[in-house]
Fold this protein.
Amino acid sequence: MADAAGRLSRLAEEVLGAPLPVRIRAWDRSEYGPPGAPVLVIRNRRALRRLLFKPGELGLARAWVAGDIDVEGDLYEALDLLSGLIWERGTAAEKPRRAAALRALAKPEVRAAARELVTLAGLPVPPKPPAEEAPKSHGPLHTLRRDKEAISHHYDVGNDFYELVLGPSMVYSCAYWESPDATLEEAQRDKLDLICRKLRLEEGQRLLDVGCGWGSMALHAAREYGVRVVGITLSEEQAAYGRKRVAEAGLADRIEIRVQDYREVHDEPFDAISSIGMAEHVGRARYAEYAADLYALLKPGGRLLNHQIARRPLADEDAYHVDEFIDRYVFPDGELAPVGRTVGQLEDAGFEVRDVEAIREHYALTLRAWVANLEARWKEAVRLTTPGRARVWRLYMAASALSFERNKIGVNQVLAVRTPESGTSGLPLRAREWRG
Protein backbone atom coordinates (compact mmCIF):
# COMPACT_ATOMS: atom_id res chain seq x y z
CA MET A 1 0.00 0.00 0.00
CA ALA A 2 3.07 2.28 0.09
CA ASP A 3 3.11 5.29 -2.24
CA ALA A 4 -0.68 5.48 -2.63
CA ALA A 5 -0.32 9.16 -3.63
CA GLY A 6 1.97 8.33 -6.53
CA ARG A 7 -0.24 5.50 -7.73
CA LEU A 8 -3.36 7.68 -7.59
CA SER A 9 -1.63 10.57 -9.38
CA ARG A 10 -0.41 8.30 -12.18
CA LEU A 11 -3.90 6.81 -12.59
CA ALA A 12 -5.42 10.29 -12.81
CA GLU A 13 -2.81 11.32 -15.35
CA GLU A 14 -3.55 8.28 -17.51
CA VAL A 15 -7.27 9.10 -17.56
CA LEU A 16 -6.95 12.87 -17.93
CA GLY A 17 -4.05 12.85 -20.35
CA ALA A 18 -2.23 15.49 -18.27
CA PRO A 19 -0.59 15.70 -14.84
CA LEU A 20 -2.77 16.68 -11.90
CA PRO A 21 -2.24 20.39 -11.15
CA VAL A 22 -2.30 19.79 -7.37
CA ARG A 23 -0.21 17.73 -5.02
CA ILE A 24 -1.71 14.60 -3.43
CA ARG A 25 -1.10 13.40 0.12
CA ALA A 26 -2.60 9.97 0.84
CA TRP A 27 -3.59 8.19 4.02
CA ASP A 28 -0.26 6.31 4.06
CA ARG A 29 1.55 9.70 4.33
CA SER A 30 2.93 9.44 0.81
CA GLU A 31 2.95 12.60 -1.34
CA TYR A 32 3.18 13.17 -5.05
CA GLY A 33 2.78 16.16 -7.34
CA PRO A 34 4.13 19.62 -8.12
CA PRO A 35 6.08 21.17 -5.22
CA GLY A 36 4.45 24.27 -3.76
CA ALA A 37 1.02 23.49 -5.21
CA PRO A 38 -2.08 23.20 -2.97
CA VAL A 39 -2.31 19.74 -1.43
CA LEU A 40 -5.32 17.50 -1.94
CA VAL A 41 -5.39 15.39 1.21
CA ILE A 42 -7.00 11.96 0.83
CA ARG A 43 -7.48 10.92 4.44
CA ASN A 44 -8.72 7.38 3.94
CA ARG A 45 -9.61 4.75 1.38
CA ARG A 46 -13.30 5.44 1.89
CA ALA A 47 -12.82 8.53 -0.32
CA LEU A 48 -11.89 6.22 -3.21
CA ARG A 49 -14.93 4.05 -2.59
CA ARG A 50 -17.13 7.13 -2.77
CA LEU A 51 -15.68 7.93 -6.20
CA LEU A 52 -15.99 4.37 -7.42
CA PHE A 53 -19.66 4.08 -6.48
CA LYS A 54 -20.58 7.66 -7.52
CA PRO A 55 -18.01 8.79 -10.09
CA GLY A 56 -17.78 12.53 -10.68
CA GLU A 57 -19.06 15.48 -8.75
CA LEU A 58 -21.39 13.73 -6.29
CA GLY A 59 -18.71 11.27 -5.15
CA LEU A 60 -16.24 14.11 -4.63
CA ALA A 61 -18.87 16.15 -2.79
CA ARG A 62 -19.63 13.29 -0.41
CA ALA A 63 -15.94 12.76 0.26
CA TRP A 64 -15.48 16.47 0.99
CA VAL A 65 -18.51 16.80 3.26
CA ALA A 66 -17.58 13.65 5.18
CA GLY A 67 -14.03 14.92 5.68
CA ASP A 68 -12.54 12.04 3.66
CA ILE A 69 -10.72 14.61 1.51
CA ASP A 70 -9.47 18.09 2.32
CA VAL A 71 -7.28 20.83 0.92
CA GLU A 72 -4.14 22.23 2.50
CA GLY A 73 -3.12 25.62 1.21
CA ASP A 74 -5.21 28.21 -0.61
CA LEU A 75 -8.67 26.74 -1.21
CA TYR A 76 -9.41 29.25 -3.98
CA GLU A 77 -6.20 28.31 -5.80
CA ALA A 78 -6.96 24.60 -5.48
CA LEU A 79 -10.50 25.03 -6.81
CA ASP A 80 -9.26 27.22 -9.64
CA LEU A 81 -6.70 24.59 -10.66
CA LEU A 82 -9.24 21.76 -10.47
CA SER A 83 -12.24 23.58 -11.93
CA GLY A 84 -11.50 22.60 -15.51
CA LEU A 85 -11.45 18.95 -14.51
CA ILE A 86 -14.52 18.92 -12.29
CA TRP A 87 -16.91 21.88 -12.36
CA GLU A 88 -16.70 23.39 -15.84
CA ARG A 89 -19.52 21.36 -17.32
CA GLY A 90 -21.54 22.72 -20.20
CA THR A 91 -18.51 24.54 -21.64
CA ALA A 92 -16.95 24.16 -25.06
CA ALA A 93 -14.09 22.20 -23.48
CA GLU A 94 -16.31 19.60 -21.83
CA LYS A 95 -17.09 17.29 -24.77
CA PRO A 96 -13.52 16.89 -26.07
CA ARG A 97 -12.26 16.36 -22.51
CA ARG A 98 -14.90 13.71 -21.84
CA ALA A 99 -14.19 12.03 -25.19
CA ALA A 100 -10.46 11.94 -24.38
CA ALA A 101 -11.20 10.37 -21.00
CA LEU A 102 -13.38 7.69 -22.61
CA ARG A 103 -10.63 6.92 -25.16
CA ALA A 104 -8.14 6.64 -22.34
CA LEU A 105 -10.36 4.17 -20.50
CA ALA A 106 -10.19 1.89 -23.53
CA LYS A 107 -6.40 1.54 -23.17
CA PRO A 108 -5.17 -1.66 -21.48
CA GLU A 109 -2.79 0.28 -19.22
CA VAL A 110 -5.62 2.50 -18.00
CA ARG A 111 -7.90 -0.48 -17.36
CA ALA A 112 -5.07 -1.99 -15.35
CA ALA A 113 -4.73 1.24 -13.39
CA ALA A 114 -8.48 1.23 -12.75
CA ARG A 115 -8.23 -2.29 -11.34
CA GLU A 116 -5.44 -0.99 -9.12
CA LEU A 117 -7.76 1.77 -7.90
CA VAL A 118 -10.34 -0.84 -6.93
CA THR A 119 -7.65 -2.63 -4.96
CA LEU A 120 -6.58 0.61 -3.28
CA ALA A 121 -10.16 1.41 -2.33
CA GLY A 122 -10.55 -1.67 -0.17
CA LEU A 123 -13.87 -3.25 0.75
CA PRO A 124 -16.37 -3.11 -2.16
CA VAL A 125 -19.14 -1.61 -0.03
CA PRO A 126 -20.74 1.76 -0.91
CA PRO A 127 -20.29 4.23 1.98
CA LYS A 128 -23.42 5.88 3.35
CA PRO A 129 -23.90 9.50 2.20
CA PRO A 130 -23.13 12.15 4.83
CA ALA A 131 -26.11 13.13 6.97
CA GLU A 132 -26.05 16.67 5.53
CA GLU A 133 -27.17 15.42 2.11
CA ALA A 134 -30.78 16.15 1.17
CA PRO A 135 -32.60 12.98 0.11
CA LYS A 136 -33.41 12.81 -3.57
CA SER A 137 -36.97 14.05 -4.02
CA HIS A 138 -39.47 12.52 -6.39
CA GLY A 139 -42.60 13.82 -8.01
CA PRO A 140 -43.31 17.20 -9.63
CA LEU A 141 -40.84 20.03 -9.05
CA HIS A 142 -41.80 23.19 -7.15
CA THR A 143 -45.01 22.15 -5.51
CA LEU A 144 -45.82 24.11 -2.34
CA ARG A 145 -44.75 21.19 -0.14
CA ARG A 146 -41.56 20.40 -2.03
CA ASP A 147 -40.45 24.05 -2.16
CA LYS A 148 -40.97 24.39 1.59
CA GLU A 149 -38.85 21.28 2.23
CA ALA A 150 -36.09 22.59 -0.04
CA ILE A 151 -36.04 25.98 1.68
CA SER A 152 -35.99 24.35 5.11
CA HIS A 153 -32.96 22.24 4.12
CA HIS A 154 -30.94 25.32 3.30
CA TYR A 155 -32.15 27.96 5.72
CA ASP A 156 -33.21 26.09 8.85
CA VAL A 157 -29.68 25.19 9.91
CA GLY A 158 -29.47 27.62 12.81
CA ASN A 159 -29.73 31.39 12.97
CA ASP A 160 -26.57 31.58 15.08
CA PHE A 161 -24.63 29.90 12.27
CA TYR A 162 -25.96 32.42 9.74
CA GLU A 163 -25.08 35.30 12.07
CA LEU A 164 -21.51 34.06 12.10
CA VAL A 165 -21.28 33.83 8.30
CA LEU A 166 -23.34 36.85 7.25
CA GLY A 167 -22.40 39.27 10.00
CA PRO A 168 -24.74 41.74 11.73
CA SER A 169 -26.59 42.71 8.53
CA MET A 170 -28.08 39.20 8.21
CA VAL A 171 -28.43 39.73 4.46
CA TYR A 172 -27.93 36.59 2.38
CA SER A 173 -27.63 38.04 -1.11
CA CYS A 174 -25.12 39.98 -3.16
CA ALA A 175 -23.95 43.21 -1.52
CA TYR A 176 -23.25 46.44 -3.44
CA TRP A 177 -19.65 47.56 -2.99
CA GLU A 178 -18.41 51.10 -3.43
CA SER A 179 -14.88 49.63 -3.42
CA PRO A 180 -13.23 46.39 -2.33
CA ASP A 181 -12.05 48.26 0.78
CA ALA A 182 -15.59 48.83 2.04
CA THR A 183 -16.90 46.65 4.86
CA LEU A 184 -19.49 43.94 4.29
CA GLU A 185 -21.95 45.84 6.48
CA GLU A 186 -21.52 49.02 4.43
CA ALA A 187 -21.95 47.11 1.18
CA GLN A 188 -25.11 45.35 2.36
CA ARG A 189 -26.62 48.60 3.64
CA ASP A 190 -25.85 50.23 0.28
CA LYS A 191 -27.52 47.32 -1.55
CA LEU A 192 -30.72 47.61 0.49
CA ASP A 193 -30.81 51.36 0.00
CA LEU A 194 -30.17 51.03 -3.74
CA ILE A 195 -33.20 48.74 -4.03
CA CYS A 196 -35.37 51.16 -2.06
CA ARG A 197 -34.33 54.01 -4.35
CA LYS A 198 -34.91 51.98 -7.50
CA LEU A 199 -38.40 51.18 -6.22
CA ARG A 200 -38.91 54.89 -5.38
CA LEU A 201 -40.35 53.99 -2.00
CA GLU A 202 -42.23 56.74 -0.17
CA GLU A 203 -43.81 57.02 3.25
CA GLY A 204 -47.16 55.29 3.50
CA GLN A 205 -46.61 52.96 0.55
CA ARG A 206 -47.00 49.19 0.84
CA LEU A 207 -44.08 46.88 0.01
CA LEU A 208 -44.11 43.10 -0.43
CA ASP A 209 -40.70 41.52 0.20
CA VAL A 210 -40.73 38.06 -1.37
CA GLY A 211 -38.21 35.74 0.29
CA CYS A 212 -37.65 38.21 3.12
CA GLY A 213 -35.02 36.13 4.91
CA TRP A 214 -34.27 37.45 8.38
CA GLY A 215 -36.11 40.71 7.75
CA SER A 216 -33.25 43.02 6.79
CA MET A 217 -34.88 44.56 3.71
CA ALA A 218 -38.19 45.00 5.56
CA LEU A 219 -36.45 46.74 8.45
CA HIS A 220 -34.46 49.07 6.21
CA ALA A 221 -37.45 50.03 4.07
CA ALA A 222 -39.73 50.67 7.04
CA ARG A 223 -37.13 52.53 9.10
CA GLU A 224 -35.58 54.67 6.35
CA TYR A 225 -38.52 55.16 3.97
CA GLY A 226 -41.59 54.88 6.20
CA VAL A 227 -43.30 52.15 4.18
CA ARG A 228 -45.49 49.33 5.46
CA VAL A 229 -43.97 45.95 4.67
CA VAL A 230 -45.24 42.40 4.32
CA GLY A 231 -42.28 40.00 4.32
CA ILE A 232 -42.80 36.37 3.34
CA THR A 233 -40.51 33.37 3.77
CA LEU A 234 -40.91 29.59 3.82
CA SER A 235 -38.38 29.21 6.64
CA GLU A 236 -39.82 28.98 10.16
CA GLU A 237 -36.44 29.89 11.68
CA GLN A 238 -36.05 32.96 9.50
CA ALA A 239 -39.56 34.15 10.32
CA ALA A 240 -39.04 33.80 14.07
CA TYR A 241 -35.74 35.66 13.89
CA GLY A 242 -37.21 38.40 11.69
CA ARG A 243 -40.19 38.96 13.98
CA LYS A 244 -37.87 39.30 16.96
CA ARG A 245 -35.80 41.93 15.14
CA VAL A 246 -38.95 43.81 14.13
CA ALA A 247 -40.22 43.88 17.71
CA GLU A 248 -36.85 45.03 19.05
CA ALA A 249 -36.77 47.84 16.48
CA GLY A 250 -40.24 49.00 17.52
CA LEU A 251 -41.57 48.54 13.98
CA ALA A 252 -44.25 45.91 14.56
CA ASP A 253 -46.91 48.40 13.46
CA ARG A 254 -45.22 48.70 10.04
CA ILE A 255 -43.81 45.21 9.35
CA GLU A 256 -45.51 41.83 9.20
CA ILE A 257 -43.38 38.71 8.70
CA ARG A 258 -45.27 35.65 7.44
CA VAL A 259 -44.43 32.03 6.72
CA GLN A 260 -46.08 32.03 3.32
CA ASP A 261 -45.47 31.11 -0.30
CA TYR A 262 -45.74 33.87 -2.89
CA ARG A 263 -48.53 31.83 -4.50
CA GLU A 264 -50.58 32.18 -1.32
CA VAL A 265 -50.50 36.00 -1.04
CA HIS A 266 -53.93 37.44 -1.81
CA ASP A 267 -54.05 40.78 0.06
CA GLU A 268 -53.03 42.96 -2.86
CA PRO A 269 -52.48 45.60 -4.09
CA PHE A 270 -48.90 46.59 -3.28
CA ASP A 271 -47.07 49.69 -4.42
CA ALA A 272 -43.82 47.80 -4.81
CA ILE A 273 -42.33 44.30 -4.61
CA SER A 274 -38.76 43.34 -3.83
CA SER A 275 -37.58 39.83 -4.64
CA ILE A 276 -33.94 39.56 -3.59
CA GLY A 277 -32.16 36.25 -4.17
CA MET A 278 -35.41 34.30 -4.09
CA ALA A 279 -36.26 33.68 -7.76
CA GLU A 280 -33.47 31.10 -8.12
CA HIS A 281 -35.76 28.77 -6.14
CA VAL A 282 -38.76 29.25 -8.45
CA GLY A 283 -37.65 26.96 -11.27
CA ARG A 284 -38.15 27.03 -15.02
CA ALA A 285 -41.51 25.28 -14.93
CA ARG A 286 -42.98 27.84 -12.51
CA TYR A 287 -41.31 31.08 -13.59
CA ALA A 288 -44.13 32.29 -15.82
CA GLU A 289 -46.53 31.73 -12.91
CA TYR A 290 -44.17 33.59 -10.55
CA ALA A 291 -43.98 36.60 -12.90
CA ALA A 292 -47.74 36.63 -13.44
CA ASP A 293 -48.47 36.38 -9.72
CA LEU A 294 -46.20 39.29 -8.85
CA TYR A 295 -47.70 41.37 -11.66
CA ALA A 296 -51.20 40.71 -10.30
CA LEU A 297 -50.14 41.72 -6.77
CA LEU A 298 -49.02 45.20 -7.89
CA LYS A 299 -51.30 48.16 -8.40
CA PRO A 300 -51.06 49.92 -11.79
CA GLY A 301 -47.82 51.86 -11.75
CA GLY A 302 -46.37 49.48 -9.16
CA ARG A 303 -42.71 48.44 -9.39
CA LEU A 304 -40.83 45.17 -9.05
CA LEU A 305 -37.14 44.84 -8.25
CA ASN A 306 -36.06 41.28 -9.13
CA HIS A 307 -32.52 40.53 -7.89
CA GLN A 308 -31.48 37.14 -9.29
CA ILE A 309 -28.44 34.99 -10.07
CA ALA A 310 -28.12 34.10 -13.76
CA ARG A 311 -26.12 31.51 -15.67
CA ARG A 312 -24.60 31.79 -19.09
CA PRO A 313 -26.80 30.63 -22.02
CA LEU A 314 -26.12 27.16 -23.41
CA ALA A 315 -26.14 26.11 -27.05
CA ASP A 316 -28.64 23.42 -26.05
CA GLU A 317 -30.81 24.80 -23.26
CA ASP A 318 -32.50 21.44 -22.77
CA ALA A 319 -29.13 20.03 -21.70
CA TYR A 320 -29.02 22.27 -18.60
CA HIS A 321 -28.82 20.44 -15.30
CA VAL A 322 -28.08 21.56 -11.77
CA ASP A 323 -24.70 20.60 -10.32
CA GLU A 324 -25.14 17.53 -8.13
CA PHE A 325 -23.24 19.06 -5.21
CA ILE A 326 -25.49 22.15 -5.21
CA ASP A 327 -28.64 20.07 -5.67
CA ARG A 328 -27.91 17.58 -2.87
CA TYR A 329 -26.15 19.78 -0.33
CA VAL A 330 -26.94 23.44 -0.91
CA PHE A 331 -30.11 24.42 -2.82
CA PRO A 332 -32.28 21.38 -3.60
CA ASP A 333 -34.34 21.99 -6.75
CA GLY A 334 -32.71 25.37 -7.37
CA GLU A 335 -32.40 26.38 -11.02
CA LEU A 336 -30.58 29.22 -12.78
CA ALA A 337 -31.68 30.86 -16.01
CA PRO A 338 -29.97 33.28 -18.42
CA VAL A 339 -30.91 36.90 -17.76
CA GLY A 340 -32.45 37.17 -21.23
CA ARG A 341 -35.00 34.51 -20.40
CA THR A 342 -35.85 36.21 -17.10
CA VAL A 343 -36.43 39.54 -18.82
CA GLY A 344 -38.53 37.86 -21.50
CA GLN A 345 -40.75 36.09 -18.98
CA LEU A 346 -41.30 39.27 -16.98
CA GLU A 347 -42.33 40.99 -20.21
CA ASP A 348 -44.61 38.08 -21.12
CA ALA A 349 -46.38 38.60 -17.78
CA GLY A 350 -47.12 42.22 -18.72
CA PHE A 351 -44.23 44.04 -17.05
CA GLU A 352 -42.37 46.87 -18.73
CA VAL A 353 -38.69 46.20 -18.00
CA ARG A 354 -37.03 49.55 -17.38
CA ASP A 355 -33.55 48.72 -16.17
CA VAL A 356 -31.15 45.78 -15.90
CA GLU A 357 -28.00 46.22 -13.82
CA ALA A 358 -25.36 43.48 -13.79
CA ILE A 359 -23.42 43.33 -10.52
CA ARG A 360 -21.48 40.09 -11.00
CA GLU A 361 -18.19 41.29 -9.47
CA HIS A 362 -20.06 42.46 -6.37
CA TYR A 363 -21.13 38.89 -5.57
CA ALA A 364 -17.55 37.62 -5.76
CA LEU A 365 -16.55 40.20 -3.14
CA THR A 366 -19.56 39.29 -1.00
CA LEU A 367 -18.82 35.56 -1.08
CA ARG A 368 -15.16 36.08 -0.21
CA ALA A 369 -16.26 38.14 2.78
CA TRP A 370 -18.60 35.36 3.93
CA VAL A 371 -15.87 32.74 3.53
CA ALA A 372 -13.50 34.93 5.56
CA ASN A 373 -16.12 35.17 8.33
CA LEU A 374 -16.57 31.40 8.33
CA GLU A 375 -12.86 30.59 8.33
CA ALA A 376 -12.08 33.13 11.06
CA ARG A 377 -14.52 31.42 13.45
CA TRP A 378 -14.32 27.88 12.13
CA LYS A 379 -14.47 26.03 15.45
CA GLU A 380 -17.52 27.99 16.53
CA ALA A 381 -19.20 27.36 13.17
CA VAL A 382 -18.67 23.62 13.55
CA ARG A 383 -20.08 23.75 17.07
CA LEU A 384 -23.18 25.66 15.92
CA THR A 385 -24.05 23.21 13.16
CA THR A 386 -22.03 20.12 12.14
CA PRO A 387 -18.53 19.68 10.67
CA GLY A 388 -20.12 18.51 7.43
CA ARG A 389 -22.49 21.47 7.17
CA ALA A 390 -19.65 23.94 7.78
CA ARG A 391 -17.62 22.19 5.06
CA VAL A 392 -20.57 22.44 2.64
CA TRP A 393 -20.81 26.18 3.15
CA ARG A 394 -17.08 26.75 2.83
CA LEU A 395 -16.82 24.82 -0.44
CA TYR A 396 -19.93 26.17 -2.12
CA MET A 397 -19.20 29.80 -1.22
CA ALA A 398 -15.55 29.62 -2.31
CA ALA A 399 -16.40 27.82 -5.56
CA SER A 400 -19.23 30.28 -6.24
CA ALA A 401 -16.89 33.24 -5.72
CA LEU A 402 -14.62 31.86 -8.45
CA SER A 403 -17.61 31.26 -10.74
CA PHE A 404 -18.65 34.90 -10.45
CA GLU A 405 -15.09 36.11 -10.96
CA ARG A 406 -14.69 34.00 -14.11
CA ASN A 407 -18.09 35.01 -15.56
CA LYS A 408 -19.51 31.49 -15.30
CA ILE A 409 -22.51 32.94 -13.48
CA GLY A 410 -23.74 36.48 -12.86
CA VAL A 411 -26.31 38.38 -10.86
CA ASN A 412 -28.68 41.08 -12.07
CA GLN A 413 -31.14 43.58 -10.69
CA VAL A 414 -34.12 43.93 -13.02
CA LEU A 415 -36.45 46.87 -12.44
CA ALA A 416 -39.89 46.33 -13.97
CA VAL A 417 -43.14 48.29 -13.84
CA ARG A 418 -46.78 47.37 -14.12
CA THR A 419 -47.26 50.30 -16.44
CA PRO A 420 -50.90 51.50 -16.55
CA GLU A 421 -52.84 51.92 -19.77
CA SER A 422 -52.03 55.64 -19.74
CA GLY A 423 -48.39 54.70 -20.31
CA THR A 424 -47.18 56.77 -17.36
CA SER A 425 -44.50 54.69 -15.67
CA GLY A 426 -43.89 57.06 -12.78
CA LEU A 427 -40.13 56.74 -13.25
CA PRO A 428 -37.76 59.69 -13.81
CA LEU A 429 -36.92 60.84 -17.32
CA ARG A 430 -33.22 60.42 -16.73
CA ALA A 431 -32.14 56.80 -16.40
CA ARG A 432 -30.74 55.68 -13.08
CA GLU A 433 -31.56 58.84 -11.19
CA TRP A 434 -31.53 56.65 -8.07
CA ARG A 435 -27.73 56.73 -8.05
CA GLY A 436 -27.91 60.18 -6.43
Notes: The two ends are 67 Å apart (CA to CA).
